[in-house]
Design brief:
By secondary structure, the chain is of the alpha/beta class. It folds into two domains: about 130 residues, 3-Layer(aba) Sandwich (Rossmann fold); about 90 residues, PAS domain (Beta-Lactamase, 2-Layer Sandwich), CATH 3.30.450. Helix 2 packs parallel to helix 3. The protein is elongated and about 75 Å long. It starts with a strand and ends with a strand. About 5% of the residues have low confidence.
Length: about 240
């Protein structure tokens, strides 16, 4: 990553100085810190792309630094790489359980540290892009005027948008896990047919929340769910 900003925290100044020199070879901006408290302040102020932090520090350990970083919404998305002389599996597991992206044991080579740093920033960048894309999709689904229902392979509702909830006039608890025919009355469609079928398109009459019979465009198409099962999306 070009022009990356990396915060380095270690209570040993020579370690910080050494890593700062390595960062310069990548043309990355280094932010030196020598205590956990300083690292927390600088992380908020500078919003680095990566934080490299030693675990064994006085007053505040690297574990505590990471825990507080992940707890703060201003810094929770910044990837953290631990440095430590402790190489026990339990130490590594503890660090990763706190949300760290990686764990390096001392001594380490510059190539290894820089490679791990690049990987952590690359993975974080990909994750943020996926989250942004997911948020955009949800925003679109929640604002379109058409009712959208997603069904699992048993025909049960696993997702619905605001338009679908308004159409049904039911609460979330009354919608999830039900079939479409249980939340909307289809006038010219048998209950067991309301789940839709492959390539099903057309017009259907339903009874809306006000008890009136209305005609709506209807479509259903197959989807692949995250767990690799098949399902359907229905729009009204």
């Amino acid at each position: 990553m070009n022009n990356a900003r990396v915060l380095v925290c270690d209570d040993e100044p020579h370690i910080v100085s050494l890593i700062m020199g390595w960062l310069e070879t990548e043309e990355w901006e280094g932010i030196p810190c020598y205590s956990g408290e300083e690292a927390l302040r600088e992380a908020v102020d500078h919003q680095p792309d990566l934080i490299i932090v030693d675990i064994m520090m006085p007053q505040m350990s690297g574990y505590e630094v990471c825990r507080l970083l992940k707890k703060d919404p201003r810094t929770t998305d910044i990837p953290v790489v631990f440095l430590s002389v402790r190489s026990d599996v339990s130490d590594i597991v503890e660090g990763m359980d706190l949300g760290a992206s990686d764990y390096l044991t001392k001594p380490f080579r510059p190539q290894e540290l820089l490679s791990r740093a690049r990987a952590a920033m690359r993975d974080n960048s990909r994750l943020r892009a996926e989250q942004k894309n997911h948020k955009l999709k949800n925003t679109i689904l929640e604002t379109i005027p058409h009712a959208v229902l997603a069904l699992d392979d048993m025909g049960k509702i696993i997702y619905f948008n605001k338009a679908a909830q308004k159409l049904s006039g039911r609460t979330s608890a009354e919608i999830l896990g039900k079939t479409p025919s249980e939340i909307v009355t289809f006038r010219n469609l048998a209950p067991d047919e309301s789940g839709g079928s492959k390539g099903d398109l057309g017009t259907r009459k339903i009874i809306n929340i006000e008890g009136k019979e209305v005609e709506v465009n209807y479509s259903a198409f197959p989807i692949k769910l995250p767990d690799k099962r098949s399902g359907f999306v229905i729009t009204l």
